[in-house]
Amino acid sequence: MSTDESRPAHSDSRGASDEIVSHRRLQYLGVALALAVAALHLAHPDHGVLALFALLYENPAALQFDPRPAAFVASGMALFVGVSLSRNAPDRKPYYVAGIALGVIYIVGYFAWHFTGHGGFLPGREPLLHDVTPLENVISHLSTDPWAAASKAGEICLVAVLGVLLRRE
Fold first, then answer.
1. Which long-range contacts (CB under 8 A, 24 or more apart) does 46-49 make?
2. Distance, CA of 34 to CA of 77 (rounded, Å)
């Protein structure tokens, strides 16, 4: 990500320089988080690119009962494209907003999926709550699935960093 050197100038040139460096580092952190979250979704062993290809080959109709592979791949690619396009964008605010929105969708979607018994809201899908409360279900999944825990941590950090960047712009 290139940086916009047109940050507010301070009377102290050292302070302005420090602010530019700080902003640049935050941008790089945002890029790293976005790429990490994208990679986690695209390489997910059960819902990533390979799982989507296998599902499309074996039974494409199954996507209506579990759309996660298509959603994981599409959203992961969207993050990669967004990072790529934002690199030289004159105004990065729309990219920050899109990244925040996608991060929030990831987080809310995860909780919605597990609170409703693994997509029990989808037509033709019976809720599966493992005989525990929805909150216990989410806690159990996050504590036993390192991939999900890393993904949620990355998404929360991504939303936070992009929020700070958006506010600073």
1. 47/71, 47/72, 48/72, 48/73, 48/76, 49/73
2. 11
The answer as to whether 2 is a domain residue is: no
- Structural domain range at position 120: 13-168
Which has the closest alpha carbon to 70: 52, 45, 50, 43? 52
Helix, strand, coil content of the chain in percent (nearest 5): 70, 0, 30
Each residue's pLDDT expressed in tens, for the chain with a length of 169 residues: 444 544 454 455 676 788 889 999 999 999 999 999 999 999 999 999 999 999 999 999 988 888 899 999 999 999 999 999 999 999 999 999 999 999 999 999 998 888 887 777 666 777 776 788 888 888 888 999 999 999 999 999 999 999 999 999 8
N- to C-terminal Cα distance for the chain? 15
Residue 128 to residue 148: CA distance in whole angstroms: 18
Measured CA to CA, the distance from residue 151 to residue 123 in angstroms comes to 27
Structure tokens at 80: 């990669």
The total domain count for the chain is 1
State both tokens at 113. Answer: 């999926």
